[in-house]
Amino acid sequence: MLALRSGLTRALAARMLAPQVYSSFATGPRQYDGTFYEFRTYYLKPSKMNEFLENFKKNIHLRTAHSELIGYWSVEFGGRVNKVFHIWKYDNFAHRTKVRQALAKDKEWQERFLIPNLALIDKQESEITYLVPWCKLEKPSKEGVYELATFQMKPGGPALWGDAFKRAVHTHVNLGYTKLVGVFHTEYGELNRVHVLWWNESADSRAAGRHRSHEDPRVVAAVRESVNFLESQQNMLLIPTSFSPLK
């Protein structure tokens, strides 16, 4: 009995002394906020891109009457073209349900946009994301181009890779190589996925900043730490539409 009690005491002591694994991705007030962002991607028929965008431009007020549009872009580079990407903000899941129900009953929206445009779409994708707790959504002060960088991290969640990822992002921002719009963590879709939305004045200024950052030992060190948890990554260059709130 004494030996058993001694063993339990040692085990408890070891547990108390073990380093606690946590991450700023999983703490902070924003994590308890129900607000989320839906990423929607539409793959359009090649000859119908302009028709689709013109129709949306004319009728956008019918859609934004129901929920807030954060940004709307066409994809210039990265993966399949003839594609549009847009972000919508919701207070919580109940709010989104009410919006979808209202849209289903909105005859003007159905007749002027939805029905005519369904034939122009090849494929649709939806992903639900949260802003990470250490980031707030920023609006650039002038027009430019956007880069959506998507990182597929190793299983284990933010408790495993969140701090290293945060340091890599902040190193780029603090050294002025690019402007951060937002960092989003996927809730529904591919898990362990993080999207970083960057802003630059132009594709050329983005390229110049990227080349300079690759030669900066501070960036190299931060990225080298984060990449240990990385499985894959991809990016898209996004051009804001004329009706996008984020220009």
TrEMBL record:
Residues 37-136, 146-245 form the NIPSNAP domain. GO terms for biological process: mitophagy. One of its GO terms (cellular component) is mitochondrion. SUPFAM superfamilies: Dimeric alpha+beta barrel (SSF54909). Pfam families: NIPSNAP (PF07978). Gene3D superfamilies: 3.30.70.100. Belongs to the NipSnap family. This is Nipsnap homolog 3A. It comes from Propithecus coquereli (Coquerel's sifaka). The lineage of its organism: Eukaryota, Metazoa, Chordata, Craniata, Vertebrata. The gene is NIPSNAP3A.
